[in-house]
Write a structure and sequence with these properties.
With about 230 residues, the chain is mainly beta. The chain has two domains: about 130 residues, Jelly Rolls (Sandwich), CATH 2.60.120.40; about 80 residues, Ubiquitin-activating enzyme E1, FCCH domain (Elongation Factor Tu (Ef-tu), domain 3, Beta Barrel), CATH 2.40.30. About 0% of the residues lie in helices and about 50% in strands. It contains no helices and 17 strands. The chain is globular.
């Protein structure tokens, strides 16, 4: 239903109230923002600052967005913040092997069902933690249970020199949404940025916020950030 008194009220949000620094990964991968420290009011959807995400309360059309005030900690650099929808799954696709190679080859316990250029979130690895809480694209799928990953620039992820894997991570399907914003920063630049866009979201999935640095491996001080969804249809 697209409006009127019968439209279900559903909304949720998370926020950051205390200035902190987000370290941008030098590999130009999307890194999950894990600095939210407060919950906004919520309806059917759940505000979950402890896990830095929002859980979608019902399959519907939502306005999703974020806003932030930030300042640069280094030289001229371009940052991007983007919202991803992460499939819930029971445990994602379990990872049973990761090679230390260029590119690193990931083996999954079952058929992964992924194709080249699909987006995924990697998390839960207790050994090769360098891969955790990033959104990647699939680079290659040598078999139905193996894959390699690539960064935003299309460069395969080189796991040489990473910590030895314990092979206990998970892959989750991710949706690259149009909710994003780019901003150029220079030394001592302070600025506000944000975006919002209507999205068709699925009940039980997670809304998460990711950031990457196009130019350099410098810190970004995030003075405030809010992420929210509000059902509109």
């Amino acid at each position: 239903m697209a409006g009127g008194d019968n439209l279900i009220a559903d909304y949720a949000g998370v926020c950051l109230d205390t200035s902190t620094a987000a370290v941008i990964d030098f590999q130009s991968v999307f890194e999950k923002i894990i600095i939210f420290d407060g919950n906004s009011p919520n309806g059917l959807s759940t505000s979950d600052q402890a896990n830095n995400r929002i859980t979608v309360g019902g399959t519907a059309i939502y306005m999703a967005g974020f806003s932030s005030s930030s300042s640069a900690g280094g030289g001229s650099e371009e940052m991007e913040i983007r919202i991803f929808e992460i499939a819930s799954g029971v445990s994602g696709t379990a990872v049973t092997g990761i090679t230390e190679a260029n590119p690193g080859v990931i083996t999954t316990q079952t058929v992964h069902g992924l194709s080249v250029n699909d987006w995924v979130k990697f998390t839960g690895e207790t050994g090769m933690v360098e891969l955790n809480d990033h959104a990647y694209q699939v680079n290659t799928t040598p078999t139905t249970s193996t894959l390699t990953l690539k960064n935003v620039a299309g460069v395969a992820i080189d796991t040489q020199g990473f910590t030895t894997a314990n092979n206990d991570g998970n892959l989750y399907a991710a949706t690259f949404t149009p909710v994003h914003s780019h901003k150029d920063f220079s030394v001592n630049t302070i600025g506000s940025w944000g975006s919002q866009f209507p999205l068709s979201l699925t009940e039980g999935n997670f809304i998460e916020c990711y950031i990457h640095n196009d130019d350099a491996a410098n810190n970004l001080t995030i003075d405030s950030i809010q992420m929210w969804i509000n059902r509109i249809g």
